[in-house]
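Batch manifest, entry 17 of 40.
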Amino acid sequence: MKRNNLVFSLLLGFGLFGILTLLLSNMPDAPNDFKNEETKNLKRQKKQDNYREFVRDNYRVYAMQMPDSISFAGEKVPLDNVDVHDRLDREFHVNTYWHSQTFLFHKRSGRWFPIIQKILEAEGVPDDFKYLCLIESGLDNVVSPAGAAGFWQIMKKTGIDYQLQIDDQVDERYHLEKSTKAACQYLKIAKKKFGSWTLAAASYNMGKAGLQKRLTEQKVESYFDLHLNNETSRYVMRIIAAKYILSESEYYGFRLRNEDLYQPYDVKKVKIESTIESLAEYATKENTNYRTLKVLNPWLRRKSLIVKPGSSYEILLPLNGSKLKERIVEDKE
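Output type: structure tokens
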């Protein structure tokens, strides 16, 4: 009996020892795992430090330096006034580092500035006002929440006052040539009233009556001395900043080749003296399509064009072939 108990005790002991050995052999090596995790953390931290150093050593965001002398429409900007300097400096940086939008400004200017410049010159309005158009709409046929429309963002009543046709079938606020001429008439009247192109530009944003009220209240004569609402206070500054950023692009980090710019459309003008019942059918007969007709003539607001007796319209069509193409412009360089 004692012998059996002894055998049983030995077997039990060996069994427990085997189980314990098995358990210990399967347990993770805690010190080694801790060491491995610590090594991973050190590598991760080193990688982060290296990346931070890489950014520090390679990434550059520069402060923009404005020209020593700045003018708008032949009128000098008083940069010796710290308030004026800082407000303008803000617009130089905001518009320089608004990369996607400013790139589009550059690109679109290649297509639309030649048309606008020609009309400004003919109307006796300084060339710098093409940048007012750019700031108003980004050279795009947009509509503001207030209802201003087209490149020049003209309100309906103002457009009618300046002899633009605005009705349910034609809206000449979207006609670049006619709306540019209307804007020129407004600006020339404002220049005569206020005696300054800078004030004329400000009035384009806030209205002639509103600007006159502020000049009278504050007893000043210069736009740069006026305390205005934030939008108009920044408005002319944006125009001035856009002028220099686009005309001296390389000083603000923009490198565009001539082929990077959108070029003017290659088009012809066709006189329309009778009603067109279907513009889509008309486009097809002219070997183009409705989409192209609308792109070239955004002032056409319906699917037909009613022409009254004695009246006529000029529409644009692709010059050669059905596809809309750009005019080939040689690189000046």
